[in-house]
């Protein structure tokens, strides 16, 4: 049995197989809806059910009209009409499930590990800068991590992993991994990637939210683009900005790249920006009408940032793109 999913105030419609989520049905039909964790934990995929019924794991049977419905796991019970935050035509994703091998493990800080994985010889996984990979755990559960390498080097993965106490991967597995150990992955996932265009881009990152920004910057370099990028990277102390020297070096080589490190708890010798990344952005840009903003980090940061930009600058929500991390207790994105 199939159900028809219609998008309110548009002529868009597509079908869902019995038991298929709205997000999966949209992807199969070639439509992209924003999402991040795919586990019903973050709010990235939330939309409005304008008519019909959706069966959801976290909210039960939801009858329209209803707001804040998590479309990543909601399954139609009959024909439905929805109003997602955004929907656009997209090529149906081609994902690969592979067994990778540990190539290098580096402690970037006491709280962050950089994990380099290699694919089997001859295997590649094309992706867009900003997308993420799912690590498949022994019990079949998954943990999403942003890919920090450039899309041009798609025969390998670099992941920046924040340690979470009790984290199924970051705590219970990562510390035991050694060279050549196997890690099963599936990729790519996510709609967090820079669309083609010429408008200036602002990248907001906190902690390991730098990982997809690194991929975006390296992709910019590889494609020889000169579209202006301004990275704001926030942490508590300078040590939290574990790859800042690399970014500073790149700013010396590429005029289109600007870097503003932001610390919330700096030591007395710090002379740079202080506070929150969105406040540093607002202090630098009285006018953001021509800019696109991409934010990745804690959910608190992404929500505070879009609210501040809308309130202080009248910023269009359509030009704000976010990939929020959630705790490892449910879906450790890093």
TrEMBL record:
Pfam families: FAD_binding_6, Fer2, NAD_binding_1. Its cofactor is FAD. Keywords: 2Fe-2S, Iron, Iron-sulfur, Metal-binding. SUPFAM superfamilies: 2Fe-2S ferredoxin-like, Ferredoxin reductase-like, C-terminal NADP-linked domain, Riboflavin synthase domain-like. Residues 3-88 form the 2Fe-2S ferredoxin-type domain. It comes from the Bacteria. CDD domains: fer2 (cd00207), flavin_oxioreductase (cd06189). The keyword Iron applies. Residues 95-195 form the FAD-binding FR-type domain. This is CDP-6-deoxy-L-threo-D-glycero-4-hexulose-3-dehydrase reductase. The lineage of its organism: Bacteria, Bacillati, Actinomycetota, Actinomycetes, Propionibacteriales. The gene is ascD.
